[in-house]
Specification:
This protein is an alpha/beta fold. It has one domain. The longest helix has 12 residues. It is elongated and about 55 Å long.
Length: 149
């Protein structure tokens, strides 16, 4: 099966992307991730995205890949800005009904498609937000938090 690589569109038709095993790779500036920016010290930085829509051997549909980059956060201990690395893998099970989503909730990370619409940039933004630390803190020894992790 042929794989098509494209940049990161706002949204795609899920069934078509899965049928062609679409590969989405590219960079998104942090400033384009508006909800993420609200959690950061600045809108500087780039998020590297490498995702693939695919049908697994068991017939299930997935969005899999890796997201990485660095963002600027403010330490809650010393209030200084620091660079927070982000590197995480993603494996979303794409489902088309709320019943299927509820049934799979304990087995995997389901993502409910509405009208066969896969909002790629929104998914990326959601996943980056989930990867951010709840209580950001730098690792500098001189941090007023005492330097312990």
């Amino acid at each position: 099966m042929k794989t098509t690589t494209t940049s990161i569109p706002l949204r795609v038709q899920a069934s078509a992307a899965i049928a062609r095993s679409a590969h989405y790779a590219g960079d998104l500036t942090v400033s384009r991730l508006r909800r993420v920016v609200d959690c950061l010290a600045s809108d500087q930085g780039v998020v590297h995205v490498d995702l693939k829509a695919l049908k697994a051997a068991d017939g299930t549909s997935h969005l899999q890949g890796r997201i990485s980059g660095e963002v600027e956060m403010r330490c809650q201990r010393c209030l200084q800005v620091y660079r927070q690395p982000l590197v995480f893998d993603l494996d979303l099970r794409l489902v088309s009904s709320e019943a299927e989503e509820a049934r799979l909730m304990r087995e995997c990370e389901p993502y409910l498609l509405i009208d066969d619409n896969l909002p790629l940039q929104e998914v990326i933004e959601d996943e980056v937000m989930l990867a951010l630390p709840l209580a950001p803190h730098c690792s500098r020894l001189e941090c007023s938090g005492g330097g312990t992790g």
